[in-house]
Amino acid sequence: MGVLGDAWTWLTTGANWSGESGVGHRLGEHLYVSGVALALSCGIALPVALYLGHIRKGGALAVNLANVGRAVPVFAVLALFMVSPLRNAGYIPTITALVLFAVPPLLTNAYVGMTEVDRSVTEAARGMGMSGGQLFLRVELPLAYPLIMTGLRSAAVQVVATATIAAMVGQGGLGRIITAGFNTYDTAQVVAGALLVAVLALLVETVLVALDRLLSPLRRRRPA
Amino acid sequence: MAGQNCLVTNDWICGEYLRSRSQELTDATVQHIWITAVSVAIGVAVAFPLALLARRGRHFAGPVLGLTTVLYTVPSLAMFSLLLPLFGLSAALVVTGLVLYSLTILVRNILAGLEAVPEEAKEAAHGMGYGPARLLWEVELPLALPALMAGIRIATVSTIALTTVGSIVGRGGLGNLIEDALPSFFKAQVLAASVLCVLLAVVADLLLLGLQRLLTPWTRIRAAHGPAEAEAV
User: What whole-number distance in Å separates Cα of residue B191 and Cα of residue A183?
Assistant: First the structure.
């Protein structure tokens, strides 16, 4: 309880929230980097996965790309950027690294969601005279929706959580509160920073779950 | 002399580096492999009973899945730092953190695999007089094996990548080399360690895929004979 009490004291001290290395600024950096990375990842992964899933081709490519992406350590990518001229490019190294980490779950889930749509369903839709576009929008997308959202959720939580690693190479974000605490053996600050990121990630997850329920195309058709 | 020069000029690829520091690279790789292997092994050992517990009903599933999700959201950096008072600067600290991380993936995959076992198969086993233990070992587990192996593959690849973060306490395998190279912008070392790390993950993934094929020969027979429906007994 001692450490948690100290962490609470740290969190409720106003001075820790203001300034360049305060929680406010670090949280802003964290949200900005995570948001941009997630938006970029969706922009890259979803069109590719949905198209490949629609034509039911390139599955091996989609999954292998995802595996290679997952195998790349964020820390290593960040370190590579930091020893290259890119280290002066602001948030770009961090965002690029996070995109590499967020694309795999998005890509794989959306692709699997599309290809797991029962062939008899798509054949029935074609038999009813649906065009490729109609089939995609009105049959495949609604049926793949749950897995697409699962991918989005895991990508979002992963991005928010791993954006902290950017602190290990001196980039911004809430991780800096943890590394700063680590460097000064200030366990209270480390715990406080960890709690902040965990709460942020859980909030993101909760919001996405709520959004998922709200937007689900099958929601109204489920028996009450 | 040309070999020496690439260390001086700080090239990305440096043969002299690989030659002169091969022992350092080997040691880091070995540390990386055993930290990963121990973590995933303990992760499976812990995840399996948790998945069985979660399967018993909503009362257990909610807390188990919720707890592992919460653990997963704790940043690795903070996880390792938080465990510091308990373990000190030891590999046990990193292994514990990695185990906690792998639980999310493993519990969900094992649970999904067990829940995907067809009801008919379970009923048939019941009808043949199988008890719960025998049902689990001889019917459910084999049928859940592809999902379990998929979980182990994901957990292993993620663990290999996450191990690098253990360098914050000096037990990060190849991550240590990356961390050491950062202050001096030693490009060859960062690149070599990163490439080795990715190679390690790819090799581990392929080995586990091979293992999965060996353990589940029936999936190949089914694929070779066309639609699964036609082959299903």
Answer: 26
Share of residues in chain B with pLDDT > 70 (%): 92
**Tell me, what CATH number does B213's domain have?**
1.10.3720.10
Q: Name the pLDDT band for B107 (thresholds 50, 70, 90).
A: very high
3-class DSSP state for residue B120? helix
Closest Cβ–Cβ partner in A70, A76, A202 for B158:
A70
pLDDT at B193 over 50: yes
Contact A201 B201 (CB under 8 A): no
Tally of domains within chain B: 1
**b/e for A19-34, b at 16 or more Cβ within 10 A?**
eeeebeebbebbbbbb
Choose the closest CB to B82 out of A84, A169, A190: A190
Question: Is the CB of B187 less than 8 angstroms away from the CB of A164?
Answer: no
- DSSP structural state of residue A17: G
Q: Select the highest-mean-pLDDT range: A51-60, A89-98, A145-154, B41-50.
A: B41-50
- Could you tell me if residue B55 is inside a domain? yes
pLDDT of residue A54: 85
| Residue B61 belongs to domain spanning | 21-218
> Measured between beta carbons, which residues in chain B are less than 8 angstroms from residue A202?
70, 73
Confidence grade of residue B208 (pLDDT, cut at 50, 70, 90):
very high
Q: Point out the residue among B75, B82, B167 whose CB comes nearest to the CB of A191.
A: B82
Q: Using a CB-CB distance cutoff of 8 angstroms, which residues of chain B are in contact with residue A77?
A: 194
For this complex, say whether ipTM is above 0.85: no
**Do A168 and A179 meet the contact criterion of CB atoms below 8 Å apart?**
yes
Residue pair B163/B35 in contact by the 8 Å Cβ criterion: yes
* Cα–Cα distance list, A21 to A3, B110, B148 (Å): 22, 42, 43
A75 contacts B167? CB cut-off 8 A: yes
List of domains in chain A: 2-218 (1.10.3720.10)
- pLDDT digit string, tens, across residues A9-32: 888 888 888 877 788 888 898 999
